[in-house]
Amino acid sequence: MEISVTYNTGNFEKIRISSHKQAYNLVIENWNLGTIEFQEECKVILMNKGNFVLGIYNVSKGGIDSSVVDIRIILAVALKCNATQLILVHNHPSGSLTPSNSDKNITEKLSKACDLLNLTLLDHLIITRNDYYSLNKEDNFL
Q: Which terminus of the chain has fewer CB atoms gathered within 10 Å of its CB, N or C?
C-alpha cells in the first residue's frame, strides 16, 4: 500500500486575521443566524503562520446548552490542512457570554494538545448574534 498526499486550498481570497474582532466578524458571517440562539455549535478557524485563514471547520452541532468538542478531530483537521494556528469558536444559545467551567477546561486541554504538535491555539471565542467573549484576554493576540 502506498500513501500519497496532495494539498490544494482552492482559496484564492486571502483573509488575514489579526484581532479577536476580525475573527468574530469572519465566523459570524459563516454562522447560521437562524439557529445561533437555538442550538450550540462549535467551529474552528484554521490559519497558517502568516495568520491567513485556510478555512473554517464545523467541529460539532449539539443541543440547547452543549456540544461535543473532540480534540482529536480538531487536531486531525488542523494537520491535514497544514494549519499552524487555531481559533476555537462556539456559541451560547442562552445569550450569555460568560465562559463555563467546561469552556475553560476544553480551552486548556486543546492548548496543551496543540503545544505537543507545535500548533498554537490563539483563542477561544464564545459568540452570540451581536457580541463575543475572548478567553484570551489580550486585545491583540497575534
A: N
- Quick one: DSSP state of residue 15? -
CA distance 83 to 99: 26
The pLDDT value recorded for residue 104 is 94
Q: Can you tell me the distance from the alpha carbon of 42 to that of 46, in angstroms, rounded to the nearest whole number?
A: 13
Closest to 77 in 3D by CA, of 61, 57, 53 = 57
Chain centroid offset of residue 105 CA: 15
Tell me which of 2-11, 43-52, 72-81 is least confident.
Answer: 2-11
Q: Which of 105, 80, 36 is nearest to 88 (CA)?
A: 105
| 3-class secondary-structure state, position 56 | strand
Q: C-alpha distances in angstroms, 8 versus 21, 54, 71, 85, 103?
A: 28, 10, 24, 18, 33
CA separation, residue 53 to residues 24, 43, 97 (Å): 13, 13, 25
